[in-house]
Amino acid sequence: MFENIIGQQRVVEEIEKAVTGKALPGSLLFSGDHYSGKISTALELSRILTCSGDKSWNCACRSCENQRLLLHPYIQILGSSFFMEDINACADIIKAKQPVYARYMFIRAVRKLLKRFDPVLWEGNEPKFKQVAANAVKAEELLREIKIDGDLEPTVKLAKLVDRIVNECGKIADSYNSDNIPIDQIRRIHSWARTSSESCKIVIFENADLMGDSSRNSLLKILEEPPENCYFILTTSRKGAIIPTILSRVRVYNFKSRTDTEADEVIRKIFREDRTGYRSIREYFLGRKSDIIALKQLASDFTDSVVEMETGKNLGIIGNFKDVFSQKRLFTLFVEECVAIMRVRLKEGRLDAHRAMELNELFRKAMLRREQYNQSSQLVLESLFYSAAGK
Question: Are residues 113 and 220 in the same domain?
């Protein structure tokens, strides 16, 4: 069990002990930084809970075969994620080499996105669903052309197929323009979870801290009276943003930040690549595209202007926001990069601890305004800067 989870031995041992001792609660919260292994552990736990064999990764039972390919009918995944960053990274890998692990990685990365468009979640909201249903069906059809077993595809043919899948996924991801989990989807999950089934059911709420008030309240009602034989796994990178009433109804598993050595091991063992050129697993996934490079430079300039209050310099930076944040997904990455740079400036002595706490809170509020109230990135960051100037 959990053979594919690296660098989280303590938390994995706790979960495994609960599973084998039949003491795993129905509601769990996996808390930790992005790319600390939360979603991978949630998916692996789902496979183990539905397994009818020996529970190893290579188990040959039908349930495990479906889980490895994210085709199991009794698992649902909701919430936002870095869909295209993961898909693009895995696309690069499968085009460069075609062993079984690369095929699994790409297929799973795509289906993590497609799972958000399961008809179960969109029943009754078909008009909106139709906008992406055709792209989702096409992506799935193309994806099934990639065989797990068998001879290697001609490199050029495979590259074209992968690019077509990525293109369809890009259209889908662009339509997935809200970080919030809609309340109507949570209500459908409530109904789905209570229907009879031949196996236990698992629902994963990724980035659960981004839910709006109505969605949180709806989820809370489910957790207060959970259906039998159903597990709810919430993930978050900001445990403090989870409301206390939900926290009181889940068992929390804290995922530590991976060390450089552990990050090296993940990239070497899971992705069969060298980490050279990347500071972390996050950069390995996100640092491949030109827009990320531009974003990182803006984050550095913006953070230093806020830290040092270089007003004139910052006004020039703000003018560049419109182009960089044409894609909503980049805002979260920008804020994360700013916070990481602040930590560096704190260690360098260019920022005192009190000021760092003030700025960190401003960035947190900026994230809230962007994610839950859908304010424009440029407006939020202009407000953040002038709020910082007033401190």
Answer: yes
- Using alpha carbons, list the distances in angstroms from residue 271 to 43, 247, 250: 18, 34, 32
Q: How far apart are the C-alpha atoms of 103 and 113, rounded to whole Å?
A: 16
What is residue 23's predicted lDDT score, i.e. its pLDDT?
A: 93
Is there a domain that residue 65 lies in? yes
Do residues 220 and 352 share a domain? no
Average pLDDT over residues 175-194: 84
By C-alpha distance, which of 118, 140, 113 is closest to 185? 118
Q: What is the rounded CA–CA span in Å between residue 2 and residue 9? A: 9
Task: Tell me if 275 is assigned to some domain.
Answer: no
User: Would you place residue 96 in the very low, low, confident or very high pLDDT band (cuts 50, 70, 90)?
Assistant: confident
What is the percentage of the chain residues whose pLDDT exceeds 90?
35
On whether both 191 and 66 belong to a single domain, the answer is yes
Domain range holding 372? Answer: 289-389
Indicate whether 324 and 258 sit together in one domain. no
Q: Cβ(284)–Cβ(278) under 8 Å?
A: yes
SS (H, E, C) the chain: CCCCCCCCHHHHHHHHHHHHCCCCCCEEEEECCCCCCHHHHHHHHHHHHHCCCCCCCCCCCHHHHHHHCCCCCCEEEECCCCHHHHHHHHHHHHHHCCCHHHHHHHHHHHHHHHHHHCHHHHCCCHHHHHHHHHHHHHHHHHHCCCCCCCCCCCHHHHHHHHHHHHHHHHHHHHHCCCCCCCHHHHHHHHHHHHCCCCCCEEEEECCHHHCCHHHHHHHHHHHHCCCCCEEEEEEECCHHHCCHHHHCCCEEEECCCCCHHHHHHHHHHCCCCCCCCCCCHHHHHHCCCHHHHHHHHHHHHHHHHHHHCCHHHHHHHHCCHHHHCCCCHHHHHHHHHHHHHHHHHHHHCCCCHHHHHHHHHHHHHHHHHHHHCCCCHHHHHHHHHHHHHCC
